[in-house]
Amino acid sequence: TPRNVGDILHALLQRAGVRASVEEVAAALRPNDLLRSCGNAARAREWLGWQPAISWETTLDDVSADWRARVAAEAAPL
């Protein structure tokens, strides 16, 4: 399922309980930047019988938990 980077960011911020203003800086965009890129898992499904086993929401929760653990480990006294 294609996902917009901004939507991913907002979902992660929501899970973190953080309110942030996100601004796109047009000057930072390059003329050769891809506007859209997405994969297609059809061949993996066809050839390997692959099916996604982890939901998108679980993926976001896992990413959030991983970063919380990393930040906590860095903040822990030596």
Task: Please tell me about this protein's structure.
This protein is an all-alpha fold and 78 residues long. It contains three helices and no strands. The protein has helices at residues 5-16, 42-48, 56-75. Helix 1 (5-16) crosses helix 3. The protein is flat.
Core attributes:
78 residues; mainly alpha; 0% strand
Kindly summarize this structure in a few lines:
The protein has 78 residues and is an all-alpha fold. The chain is built from 3 helices and no strands. Helix 1 crosses helix 3.
Ordered list of secondary-structure elements with their pairings:
Elements (H helix, E strand, L loop, with lengths): L4 H12 L25 H7 L7 H20 L3
Structural class label: mainly alpha
- The quaternary structure here is single chain
The SSE string, one letter per element, is HHH
Shape: flat
Gyration radius, rounded: 17 Å
